[in-house]
Amino acid sequence: MASGTPKTLVSTSLFRAAIGPSSPEPLSLLPPIPSEVPCSNVIPRTRFLVDAFLHAGDHSISYFLSHFHSDHYTGLTPNWSKGIIFCSYITSRLLVEVLKVPESFVVSLSLGEVVFIDGCDVTLVDANHCPGSVQFLFKVPVHDSKFERYVYTGDFRLCDSMKAEPFLKEFVGCEAIFLDTTYCNPKFVFPSQEDSIDYIVSVIEKFGGDRGASKGKVLFLVATYVIGKERILVEVARRCSRKVHVDSRKMLILRILGYGMSGLFTEDASESSIHVVGWNTLGNTWPYFRPDFIKMREIMLERGYDKVVGFVPTGWTYEVKRNKFMVKTKESFEIHLVPYSEHSNYCELQEFVKFLKPRSIVPTVSADVDSLDSKHLQSMQKHFAGLVDETSSKRDVLMNSRRFSSELDEMIEAGSPQEIRATTSIDASGNSCTTPVFDDLSIRVEKSSQSPLVNREAKEEALQELGVYLPAWVSRDQMLELINASGNDIIEAVSSFYERETDFFRQVSTSTSLSDVSASLITSSAVSLSVSTPANNNSARTMNLFSSIQNKVTKTNHVKKSSNPGKKPKTVSVNSKKKRKIGSTPETLNSGSGSRQSTITSFFTKKLPVSPHGCGVGNRDSPKH
DNA sequence: GCGATCAGAT
DNA sequence: CACATCTGATCGC
């Protein structure tokens, strides 16, 4: 199929082709989209579902997958038959070869190519997340030859090339952006990927010399998960001029990703002293990073080295110090926590929104609509400023939403003298997504005739802003101090606050037993910041940042002591975890017999024919219609 | 027994 | 809670 000319695809016809002569009903006659499908996964005015395969059903026949991470593709099985899955080429290969999704249901689209699907123009642009990750641009017709434009970022990390992307530019001022809000909080300020890679390379080179053969004394370990953060490996291999050792699992994935012939990787451990290890090999990251020096020693002895230097590239860290990388050391082991992220950080999210100037924002992360009841929502909205809780996903959604909308006040734009005012509208829970227009979690940004912000109100604004991100017990005076000390830089202020908290937590946690931690934390947090904690605040409220840690600790202890070995005492209301009935399609087309969730593990346990030069897999042409 | 889904661990 | 993944238990037929 020639490239260049825009393709025209109609999902229904593809679907028919895929499932045979018994054609489905016209789109308009499909059943309504069930209300339990989160709005953050449905493109308004369409039947398009994005990254929502657990919600697949008769109501939709066009599905989109932004990237190949399990939390986005769950629901896809070898028996998939509910509709066409649109994704990037790399993702399509992974779907077919790893998950064994029937190839006839997978359609890969090229980046930057406008495709006509079910009456809508759809374009893929790179998401700079993991290999194969894309953002979807939907141009949905409404009436009078007008369109609504939607950007679905999937998981993404902003980069310069993204802002230069012409297709994305055409979506400036779009109706809504479905945004990856994973790190939508100023406390997450991590450096650019380049800086992080620079750091890793510099550490490796600091130890210099012993490259190549088995004589190497220093073993370097890089923790990654199955797919993602390959750029670190590629860059390290390239810039350190040596191969990176991976096991056969990782190598198979890398082949599918197109690195098979790069010569950057080897399965022969003796060829390299830089080895890739599994995500949890070097330690656990929760609730704070605890290195596993025992395992490191095992690996060191096993592989015949004298010293081990590990890298854990993670975006999830309480380490908020900028330009500083945490290093854990013991004997001949050291682990570098490198704040490497494949999600956009707070500043980048701001920048992206500023760039796109959307009319509304729909958070796609932590938007657990099922568990958001209207009462809770409304009360949170009402007491919003005081209810910020870093650890609550429900609140995060609101907070981030709110955050963005107020952010828009400043960001949206420059030239325009008119103020843009944001309103967060939260509907009653019964709101159905059948007409997938915005409700629940989306924020409408509307024009208003109010006067612009007056300068002298700036301080107050900043204060409120800051209040959103700090625990409720921080006093107004303290916030003022933080603001002043940071030169009115909100992010700096939040950052320095959490820096102190984190430092303190670390001190305490290394010098006391677990059961003492929570008590110490409460006391010392108050002390360290000279906070006059209101007596009527309960402790959970008081210890905001670490409340979850605290809960975890106490809960764990409690469980151990109490007679409740099997089950974790959940306080979540039963009905909030209602079972969602996925519409089971009567058409059990092509379903052979061996139907079972194909996992990556099962993929790897099979012996795949490996081509002589390790490049045979995944080299086919894109399965165009 | 089997597949789909969830809870928990890693 | 959680950057993602996998195992085993449980649910439902």
Structure description:
It is found in: Nucleus. GO terms for molecular function: 5'-3' DNA exonuclease activity; damaged DNA binding. Keywords: DNA damage, DNA repair, Nucleus. It comes from Trapa natans. Belongs to the DNA repair metallo-beta-lactamase (DRMBL) family. The protein is an alpha/beta fold and 625 residues long. The chain is built from 19 helices and 21 strands. The strands form 5 sheets. The protein has an 8-stranded mixed beta sheet, covered by helices on one side. A hairpin with a 2-residue loop joins strand 17 and strand 18. Helix 13 packs across helix 14. The protein is globular and about 70 Å long. The termini are close together. The N terminus and C terminus are likely disordered. It binds a DNA duplex (10 and 13 nucleotides) through helix 12 and helix 18.
Element layout with pairings:
Layout: H1 11-19, E1 49-50, E2 62-64, H2 70-73, E3 84-87, H3 89-97, E4 106-108, E5 115-117, E6 120-126, E7 134-141, E8 147-152, H4 160-164, H5 166-169, E9 176-179, H6 193-207, E10 218-223, H7 230-239, E11 244-245, H8 248-256, E12 265-266, E13 274-277, E14 283-284, E15 290-291, H9 293-303, E16 307-313, E17 326-330, E18 333-338, H10 346-356, E19 360-363, H11 374-382, H12 393-411, E20 420-424, E21 443-447, H13 458-469, H14 476-485, H15 490-511, H16 514-528, H17 539-542, H18 547-561, H19 600-605
Parallel strand pairs: 1-2, 2-3, 3-4, 8-9, 9-19, 10-13, 10-16, 11-12, 16-18
Antiparallel strand pairs: 5-6, 6-7, 7-8, 14-15, 17-18, 19-21, 20-21
Helix pairs in contact: 6-7, 10-12, 13-14, 13-15, 14-15, 15-16, 16-18
This protein binds a DNA duplex (10 and 13 nucleotides) through helix 12 and helix 18.
